[in-house]
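User: Can you recover a sequence for this backbone? Please restate the input before giving your answer.

Assistant: Of course. Working from this structure:
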């Protein structure tokens, strides 16, 4: 039903009278989407890389673990899948941290913070995440040979990274591991059967 009190639309909007407000908005959104995708195709826009969501690790913890993973596992140099771009090592650590008890998770966060900030004493007030590759590797090696606390912290972080890299099946060919023998040999699963007695 037409509103008699409404002023007529200007010439450039003629023909839009039958559209309701909702219909006009829907048409505008569809036209904008079509125009955007057309421009993207025309100018060769690439799809955005997949972004990972983290649920337990904080952004600064992600930075530290990513940098440590790059330093500890330069896998691409040895023909193995990348430890950061192919195998989601940091994402795997995040999933593991989600299942940790609260106290353990807090201690992990504290350990990561200490690890990142400790080189400020001996590396001209620079954090681990800002060290170049050679200095970062020197720092990791020094921690591995340091005091009891330093060795313990380094062992924990190394174990987290190594475990969450090598658990990905894409890394197994590098170890000449072909998967669980129960699957390879077709061993029948017995469930919770009792162990045989001697």
């Amino acid at each position: 039903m037409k509103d008699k009190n409404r002023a007529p639309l200007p010439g450039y909007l003629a023909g839009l009278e039958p559209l309701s407000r909702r219909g006009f908005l829907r048409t505008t959104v569809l036209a904008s989407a079509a125009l955007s995708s057309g421009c993207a195709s025309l100018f060769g826009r690439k799809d955005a890389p997949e972004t990972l969501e983290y649920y337990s690790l904080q952004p600064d913890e992600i930075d530290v673990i990513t940098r440590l993973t790059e330093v500890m596992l330069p896998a691409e140099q040895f023909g193995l899948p990348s430890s950061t771009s192919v195998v989601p090592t940091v994402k795997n650590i995040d999933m593991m941290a989600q299942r940790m008890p609260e106290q353990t998770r807090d201690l992990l966060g504290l350990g990561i913070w200490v690890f990142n900030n400790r080189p400020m004493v001996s590396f001209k007030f620079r954090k681990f995440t800002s060290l170049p590759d050679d200095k970062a590797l020197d720092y990791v090696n020094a921690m591995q040979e340091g005091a009891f606390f330093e060795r313990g912290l380094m062992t924990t972080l190394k174990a987290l990274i190594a475990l969450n890299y090598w658990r990905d099946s894409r890394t197994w060919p590098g170890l000449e591991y072909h998967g669980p023998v129960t699957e390879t040999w077709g061993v029948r699963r017995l469930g919770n059967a009792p162990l045989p007695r001697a």
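That completes the design. The first helix runs from residue 21 to 42.
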